[in-house]
Amino acid sequence: EPAWGNEVFIIGGGEIFRQAMNVTNKLYLTVIEKEYNGDSYFPEFDLNEFELTNKVFKDGEVPFSFCTYTRKAVKPK
To answer: Checking DSSP bridges between strand 26-32 and strand 50-58, what pairing results, if any?
Structure first.
């Protein structure tokens, strides 16, 4: 195990997220339940490749969910 731990966190922006998706095994996403105009977004990803393993909803002026997605195991052919 590396001295710095066994997880690497990618913290953006949009293009860096896109480039890292092929090597990503876990996603920690904060999903804001409100529409905002913006110029950078997290890339769409295939929900068939990931499983939602945890979701915590927080209500308030700006409701949001903190979601954890884990890549599903690849089945050998």
So the answer is: unpaired
